[in-house]
Amino acid sequence: YAQKTDTFMGEVVNYDEAAVPSYTLPDVLLTLNGKTVKSKKDWENERRAEIISLFKKNVYGQTPAGFDSIRFELTNHMPDAMDGRASLKEVTIHIWNKGKQVDIPFVMFVPNNRKKPAPVFLLINNRSKRNTDPTRLVKSNFWPAEMLVEKGYAIAAFHVGDAAPDKKDAYQHGVLDQLYPELLAQEDGMKAIGAWAWAASRVMDYFETDKDIDVHKVALVGHSRGGKTSLWAGALDQRFALVFSSCSGSTGASLARRQYGETISLINKQFGYWFADTYKQYSNRVNDLPVDQHMLIALMAPRPVYTTNAVDDRWADPRGSYLSLINALPVYKLYNKNTALTPELPPADSPIIKSNIGYHLRKGIHDLNVYDWENFVRFADYHYKK
Ligand code: GTR
């Protein structure tokens, strides 16, 4: 017996499919001045940029134009980590803008047994740094580094807190107040998620300088709030070849208009500091939002994208997340990119791998675990033809 409603922060939370209101999604191919996009050229030259600016203005906030300089400092290098199977690199990225500086450290293991630069998975880590322990005294299913190395992939991670602390009273202390104070003053300026996505792109800047890494095979992974971020970062920065989003839910992969589980109103109440202030105006009028999350998925096209849900994670609305994928299909079709998506949400533990849009619904709770990573690797193997 599953409860059909709940209350949280003074609001009713709907978990009843029958109570999902009827809604009309904004047409991903229809431009603001009423033109239907029919070619990838029109998509790329017109509608794609329009959708990015709608997400900036109304959801995730405006992003910075650039910075004055960047430097990568190798702070630790162990060529014989993991019993000789991998090289450990710890790098600190120093970024300067208008005389101020931010340091973003990250950790990476690169497999030693290879003849070519390695493809890499970069995790946007929103949990404790213990999960990405460079010493490997702590091993975590959230970042199963040994398994990735064994399968021929490099694995890297940075922590969100080094770009913007994940706290409502402290998120500004980092990228925002140091480098881009003007964005903090703007009603539609980016906040924590914007800063985390920006940091993912700075790690990408580093990969472009490291001959051990195949820059054409950089996969971005995020879970939950990190999964919202991986989608937004993948939309903004097309250097990411593959994007994985685990249990990202509201303002990630799930359609807002379904109002199932976490709503815009609830996420703004609890986590307003992740999004632009302008997002608050949609708390009680979701149907006025000029975007919905299928348009975020569409921004990945023609690159492969993979999202997940967990059966017990109704808060993240698994069906609403699957419907985002389905409603992003028109853009993949412009590129003649086929998918193996079934019209309805697939059963639990039946991953869709051989497809430009991949998906699985996993049994169990809201998490990112070895089962998820194993399927991410299968998806990458398939697309990289390994
Ligand atoms: C929840 C939040 C979700 C999701 C999650 C997480 O409390 O409501 O949107 O981001 O946290 O990041 O684990």
Describe the structure.
By secondary structure, the chain is α/β, with parallel strands linked by helices. The chain has ten helices and eleven strands. It has helices at about 40-60, 145-150, 175-180, 180-185, 190-205, 225-235, 265-270, 295-300, 320-335, 370-385; strands spanning about 5-10, 10-15, 70-80, 85-95, 100-110, 120-125, 155-160, 215-225, 240-245, 305-310, 355-360. It has a nine-stranded mixed sheet, with helices on both faces. The protein has a two-stranded antiparallel ribbon with strand order 1-2. The longest helix has 21 residues, at about 40-60. The mean pLDDT is about 100. It binds beta-D-galactopyranuronic acid. The site of beta-D-galactopyranuronic acid has 8 residues, from helix 7. Beta-D-galactopyranuronic acid binds near residues 262 and 270.
Number of strands: 11
Q: For the record, give the distance between the C-alpha atoms at the N and C termini, rounded to a whole number.
A: 44 Å
Regions with little confidence, pLDDT below 50 for 5+ residues: none
* Rg value: 20 Å
Which ligands appear in the coordinates? beta-D-galactopyranuronic acid
Order of helices and strands: EEHEEEEHEHHHEHEHHEHEH
The total count of helices amounts to 10
Proportion of residues in extended strands: 15-25%
Task: Please state the average pLDDT score.
Answer: 98
Shape: globular
Q: What spatial order of strands do you see in the largest sheet?
A: 3-4-5-7-6-8-9-10-11
How would you characterize the largest beta sheet? 9 strands, mixed
Question: Structural class of the helices, strands and pairings?
Answer: alpha/beta
